[in-house]
Amino acid sequence: MASSDVPSQSSDELRKPDDPLLPGQVLRIYSMRMCPYAQRTRLIARAKGVSHDIVNLDLNNKPDWFFDLNPYGEVPVVIHNGGHVYESLIAAEYLEEAFPEPKLFSDDPLIKAYERIYYNHWTKKGIPAFYSLLKAGYPDPEQTQRLNQHISALEGFMTTLDKPYFHGAAPGFSDYMIWPWFERLPMLKDITEFSLSSKDCPRLLAWIDRMWKDPVVQHCKIDPELLTKHYTIYRKGRPDFTIGADGKATGSDSQESVVVPEALENLDGLREAHTRDRRN
Ligand SMILES: N[C@@H](CCC(=O)N[C@@H](CS)C(=O)NCC(=O)O)C(=O)O
């Protein structure tokens, strides 16, 4: 089935892991509309043409059973064949193996290893730098420099590779693992004035233009205005995770916003601990 024909359902109805899939659907993804990690799995499922059911969670009100699926209490979780797979990279790799066509990884072990190096770099170095700048909420020179340094490494990979995509001639696994944060660059610009320079990042800027033309990216795209609204609140502490539900256009900032003080290496630093753990 061509990926454009694939029915996928996005819903706020809290379907449980054992609730049957809708007719014709093969798997379920527990997600949150604004989540870049969940977007990784949505991109792979879409690229594979796998018909799936997306259940959006309110991460401020997680049902207790969700921790049985993922002890970290995080989305994404993929439900398939009676199993549940969490951690976005593991879930995406699972989808690549469970649904071999179209292949998003090269058969050549060296090319595959390079692709892993690219998205591992972004996950390990780029994402923490991205959130640290976001959390600052202004053009903090130190955090801007840190993010630029890790983005320059991606530009360097592309220069050495000399291909239109990290995967090669077409978008592939590594492109979809890196993309969600590049889709969020306009949001980061709105909040911190950060942007890529055409002098330093010509290849990445050309990659971004190409990625926007990819039908899979277009399908999984998130309303940019909602992203800015969501992260404006998120960076201060307690976001409204139901933003975007049923056309809901505003995140509620009615809860008192708290700037979380500890050093930020991942999203944990942006969230109050009690919203991440089991309630009982
Ligand atoms: N390392 C995880 C990170 C996933 C993650 O941080 N997801 C966020 C949403 S974007 C989440 O579910 N957070 C739980 C919470 O904030 O309570 C992965 O790669 O899947």
From TrEMBL:
GO terms for cellular component: cytoplasm. Residues 25-103 form the GST N-terminal domain. It catalyses: methylarsonate + 2 glutathione + H(+) = methylarsonous acid + glutathione disulfide + H2O; RX + glutathione = an S-substituted glutathione + a halide anion + H(+); L-dehydroascorbate + 2 glutathione = glutathione disulfide + L-ascorbate. It comes from the Eukaryota. GO terms for biological process: glutathione metabolic process. Residues 1-11 have a biased composition (Polar residues). Keywords: Oxidoreductase, Transferase. Residues 1-20 are annotated as: Disordered. Residues 108-240 form the GST C-terminal domain. Its EC number is 1.20.4.2, 1.8.5.1, 2.5.1.18. GO terms for molecular function: glutathione dehydrogenase (ascorbate) activity; glutathione transferase activity; methylarsonate reductase activity. Exhibits glutathione-dependent thiol transferase activity. Has high dehydroascorbate reductase activity and may contribute to the recycling of ascorbic acid. Participates in the biotransformation of inorganic arsenic and reduces monomethylarsonic acid (MMA). Belongs to the GST superfamily. Omega family. This is Glutathione S-transferase omega. It comes from Plakobranchus ocellatus.
